[in-house]
Amino acid sequence: MPRIILDLCGGTGAWSRPYVDAGYDVRLVTLPDDVRLWFHPGSVHGILAAPPCTMFASSGARWKRSEAQLCDALSVVDACLRFVVTCRPIWWALENPVGALRRWLGPPVMRFDPCDYGDPYTKRTCLWGQFTMPAKRPVVPVAKSPIHYMSPGPARSAKRSVTPAGFAQAFAEANP
What we know:
Helix content is about 25%, strand content about 20%. With about 180 residues, the chain is an alpha/beta fold.
């Protein structure tokens, strides 16, 4: 029986792709599905969570936040963490760019840039959770994140949230 990996707020599924390729039973929960309304799927091996970052970003991705919008965003983070508590996975990780989320979760367990794992650009990212640190495969960054060269809009937002392939592979190798 394949082991279940939950990819919460997973968007394109880029972070869980190495698990899919390795034969895991990956459950991708992303828009239009709402992780706050999803059900406990039974025995879960690992959880990848990447709640939307717009409300917590400290970069140009942020925008004026209302209290209601912030509460809504925090409820998504809360839902992801409730899955950790109820599912009791072997390992779990919650990802978000450097920003205000640390005010609610405390300091991250790990920080990285895509260039630390073979993708030649920078985009400082934080991880919270209980997992084995992936082995680094650094390359020299040649640019900032590719999103800096795109026009604002939905395509840029979608591109910004994609987990770098090098990091996804390294994480899966360290956390089978």
